[in-house]
Design brief:
Elements (H helix, E strand, L loop, with lengths): L1 H4 L8 H38 L2 H12 L1 H14 L3 H22 L5 H4 L1 H23 E2 L2 E2 L6
Antiparallel strand pairs: 1-2
Length: 150
């Protein structure tokens, strides 16, 4: 069926796309969900502690938006080595996911288009943080592990 849409479907390495693109993007989204859950739990339990101090507010935002990408990047770097495809996929995934969820559940679907600077900067930061995690995780025995595509 894919041959009807793309005549050279045999050229697509589905295993590479699954391991280097889809898995890191999904893992980053799941990790962000866990971070949001932890911060939401903290808000329910100790709202005053979390919201009265600027340091705890920044820590909460970092736990939701930055730490998940870095942690998943480290884990992906240990497994996959240093490659740019997982970082780009993980950087774009939250914006695509949010847009799809707005479309499904009702919401401002055009938010990403109406604020392109914020959207591009968010994707760039997520990509760089994930890439730093990949770099940190792929260092083995003092050498950078770069996968060779077969």
């Amino acid at each position: 069926m894919a041959e009807n849409w793309y005549p050279h479907a045999d050229d697509i390495d589905r295993r590479y796309v699954g391991r280097q693109v889809l898995a890191p993007a999904a893992a980053a989204l799941v990790a962000m969900g866990v971070g949001f859950g932890v911060v939401a739990g903290l808000i329910f339990v100790a709202e005053g502690f979390l919201l009265t101090n600027i340091v705890t507010q920044v820590a909460g935002l970092a736990l939701m938006y930055v730490v998940p990408h870095f942690v998943v990047g480290v884990l992906a770097g240990r497994r996959l080595g240093f490659d740019i495809a997982p970082a780009i996929a993980a950087g774009i995934a939250p914006v695509v996911f949010a847009t799809l969820m707005f479309a499904v559940f009702g919401g401002p679907i055009s938010t990403a288009v109406q604020t392109p600077t914020v959207t591009i900067l968010a994707m760039l930061v997520w990509t760089l943080v994930f890439a730093l995690g990949l770099f940190a995780g792929s260092k083995r025995d003092g050498e950078l592990s770069i996968p060779l595509r077969s």
